[in-house]
Specification:
Blueprint: H1 3-6, E1 12-15, E2 25-27, E3 37-40, H2 53-58, E4 63-66, E5 77-81, H3 84-95, E6 104-109, H4 114-127, E7 132-135, E8 139-142, E9 145-148, H5 156-168, E10 173-177, H6 180-184, E11 193-198, H7 206-209, H8 212-224, E12 233-237, H9 241-249, E13 253-257, E14 267-274, E15 277-284, E16 287-293, H10 298-313, H11 318-327, E17 336-337, E18 345-349, H12 354-367, E19 372-376, H13 386-397, E20 400-403, H14 413-426, E21 431-433, H15 437-447, E22 453-457, E23 464-466, E24 471-473, H16 476-486
């Protein structure tokens, strides 16, 4: 494609050379550049692509996108732009033929619930007979198959390539988690969303956003439009104050959902929650339908409502909505049961914010016939302010807290745990410290009795444990299974019936 066509709609400040130039590919990683490619020198949180321009040109880059002015001696056409991330998003859309225009995009944002809501919407759309793709924290469902997620929201170039694959495969819908980082870094810039969904806002990522208001403003961009018109449909959780705030700012059609029985709100009537699942009547302004789901907990009730409200707003039949909500059996690392014949429940969950902790522990407290035992830590090099908050919630809502290691990165694991202990002690909670996560699981299972619920929290679907000097493979499910086997629970029997009583 001619460079001029690749740059259609890109706001350029200056260009080092004139004349036509054929571009055969685009990259933002200098190691991926090939002959005749355009290299976008984007600045990340750790590395600046401008430091690798020479390597990109040596590998064959014939053009460079940068916010810096043209450099002397660079044997490539240099295009200076005011925002290289927005320029990359526009150039990628041009290069791949604007695949999003042939697809209907649903974006889900919020602190908690994005992953589960995304999986639920994919299930509903499939139940309605559509081909659909998915992008999220756990994995991407692409036209070529399922791949592990590198980021919750892919970089704009990767996203456009995936979208083009789905367009060419004849898909009609794309459901995606849209993170605050994805919005702040213009990864979805220029994408025309058919619908945007807001789940909630809780303390998280303040190491990046600094304040909750900044965090909310990043999320809000999905509903206002980034380089394109706002979504035609906004779906908002009005149980959350920020959802009500968004309702005042959003244009176009709005569908509100929540547990408050407002006549205009999509809600759940007579909900019943057990360790086997959730059932309720989904009430919409257009009718009611019975829903039986294998997902557990109040947080998942909100997620089921979010997906149901979105599907209703998009005009999907209530029968397809109910079928899709019932079909989804599990979401990796989200209230995922581990059962090997032990007389106590073991649950793996990704919860790592104060709101997620509150929902998870409240659910466990309501469902446990015995005690609630929680095993968790907190990630290093991330927001420290939430550690004592989560510690206080755990100390208040559980019977025993076992503090352990969770991706310490460059921080001292003991220092991280000490931050959490402050909150546990404030709540008067009983706690133990077992640094090794495998040993922490074994300790929890050793003290668990019949009717207890053991919560293994924080890592969920993650498959590594990240230290300052190494990255080790890790599976929360497999570690739990091994620890249970160590105590003699080795039967490969299924978890209790999914029937809801």
């Amino acid at each position: 494609m001619e460079l001029s066509k690749v740059l259609t709609g890109v706001k350029t400040l200056q260009k080092s050379r004139s004349g036509s130039l054929e571009i055969s590919g685009i990259a933002y990683d200098s190691r991926q550049v090939k002959q005749g490619w355009l290299f976008a020198a984007i600045k990340g949180e750790k590395l600046d692509g401008n430091q690798f321009v020479s390597q990109a040109v040596e590998r064959g880059a014939s053009a460079v996108l940068s916010e810096q002015p043209p450099r002397r001696g660079v044997a490539a056409t240099w295009i200076q732009v005011s925002s290289v991330r927005q320029a990359l998003a526009q150039a990628a859309a041009n290069f791949y033929g604007h695949p999003a225009r042939q697809l209907k995009l649903i974006g889900i944002t919020g602190t908690n619930g994005k992953t589960t809501t995304t999986f639920l919407l994919e299930s509903i759309l499939r139940a309605a007979g559509f081909r659909v793709g998915l992008f999220g924290t756990v994995e991407y469902h692409t036209a070529a198959g399922t791949v592990p997620a590198a980021q919750t929201t892919p970089e704009s170039l990767d996203l456009q390539q995936y979208l083009a694959g789905w367009r060419d495969a004849g898909a009609e819908w794309m459901v995606m988690e849209v993170s605050s980082h994805g919005l702040a870094f213009d990864r979805v810039y220029g994408l025309p969303f058919a619908a945007a969904v807001f789940t909630n806002l809780a303390r998280d990522h303040l190491d990046f956003h600094q304040t909750m208001d900044n965090y909310f403003q990043a999320k809000q961009q999905l509903f206002l439009g980034q380089g394109t018109a706002p979504p035609a449909l906004s779906v908002l959780n009005t149980d959350d104050p920020r959802g009500r705030q968004l309702a005042q700012a959003c244009r176009g059609e709005k569908v509100l959902y929540g547990l408050a029985e407002d006549a205009e709100t999509v809600t759940a009537l007579d909900p019943k929650i057990s360790l086997a699942g959730t059932q309720f009547t989904l009430r919409t302004p257009g009718g009611r339908v019975a829903v039986r789901s294998q997902l557990v907990g109040k947080a998942n009730l909100h997620n089921l409502l979010a997906a149901g409200a979105t599907a209703y707003g998009l005009g999907l039949p209530l029968e397809a909505i109910a079928a899709g909500l019932e079909t989804l059996q599990r979401v990796p690392g989200r209230f995922e049961r581990v059962h090997a014949g032990q007389p106590f429940a073991v649950v793996v969950d990704f919860a790592h914010t104060d709101l997620a902790f509150t929902h998870l522990l409240t659910t466990a407290r309501e469902l446990a016939r015995g005690r609630v035992i929680i095993v968790f830590g907190s990630g290093g090099d991330r927001d420290r302010t939430k550690r004592p908050v989560m510690g206080e919630i755990a100390g208040r809502l559980s019977d025993t807290v076992i503090l352990t290691t969770d991706n310490p990165r460059s921080e001292d694991p003991v220092g991280i745990i000490n931050d959490i202990v402050v909150g546990v002690q404030k709540a008067g909670g009983r706690y133990e410290i077992v640094l090794d996560r495998k040993s922490a699981f074994e300790r929890a299972f050793a003290i668990a009795r019949e009717g207890d619920i053991v919560l293994l929290v924080g890592k969920g679907h993650q498959d590594t444990q990240v230290y300052a000097d190494r990255v080790e493979p890790w599976s929360e499910i497999e570690a739990a299974q091994r620890a249970l086997a160590h105590r003699g629970y080795v039967r490969a029997e299924a978890a209790p019936s999914n029937a809801v009583s």
